[in-house]
Amino acid sequence: MKEKIYVHVADDHKILIEGIIAVINTDKDIEIEGYSLTGKEVIDWSKEKTADILILDINMPIFDGIDVLKFFQSNKTDQKVIILSSYDDVNLVKQMLNLGAKGFLSKNSAGEHIVKAIKAVAAGEQYFSDDIQNNLFKLYTGQKVAEGERPESTIAHSLTERELEVLKLIAKENSTSEISGILNISTNTVETYRKSLLKKTKVKNAVGLAMYAVKNNII
């Protein structure tokens, strides 16, 4: 029987952890070992436990992801790490790799890449989500962003005030009926806003919307 891959998830947003766990649980070869909400919790965890893969957010309270990687490096902790970040700057990617990370996923595309990334890194490979690979390609080839391609921040600015209100409530795990009551609009109107948000942000579900909201500092 093939051995399972055990994964620990570290992020300061519980809803993102739950979303990542939900995706991971769809694959029978991967199992969640546990999760942490701060960098300190990750460091404390690493002193007593281990996992095949650590999914590590960069921006966390007390100690951030960079501090965690530096701790691993200075203590010669043999832990395979995949970075999860709201930022996709290539210089940041290179810094994380120099500190020992084996993969890098941006939060807006983590849902569709997380399982592949875990399996690739567990097998000894590096893994980057498509947007990270594209940025690295542009850096080394000198190519510009294609005409008509819009950065995420531009999309965020195109959302209406009401769409932003609905997005914030979705990201805080409110149901359609709860949003309807809070904003005093019909459930059909809420669903219309939800469909518009999915189309504009190019994500597939509420978890993707929550990740988008976090990445763009909407919540």
General shape: elongated
* Regions with little confidence, pLDDT below 50 for 5+ residues: 140-154
What is the CATH top level name of the largest domain? Alpha Beta
- What's the architecture of the largest domain, going by CATH? 3-Layer(aba) Sandwich
The whole-number mean of residue pLDDT values reads: 83
- In terms of structural class, how would the helical and strand content be classed? alpha/beta
The gyration radius over C-alpha positions equals: 18 Å
| Widest β-sheet, arrangement of strands | 2-1-3-4-5-6
Q: Which oligomerization state do the chains in this entry correspond to?
A: single chain
CATH third-tier fold name of the largest domain: Rossmann fold
Q: What share of residues is helical?
A: 40-55%
Name given to the CATH homologous superfamily of the largest domain: Response regulator
Query: What's the N-to-C terminus distance?
Result: 43 Å
Beta percentage is 5-15%
Count of the domains: 2
The main β sheet shows up as:
6 strands, parallel
Report the order of strands and helices. Answer: EHEHEHEHEHEHHHHHH
Count of alpha/pi helices: 11
Count of DSSP E strands? 6
Protein name: Response regulator transcription factor
Organism: Asprobacillus argus
InterPro entries: CheY-like_superfamily, NreC/VraR/RcsB-like_REC, Sig_transdc_resp-reg_C-effctor, Sig_transdc_resp-reg_receiver, Tscrpt_reg_LuxR_C, WalR-like
Modified residues (4-aspartylphosphate): 57
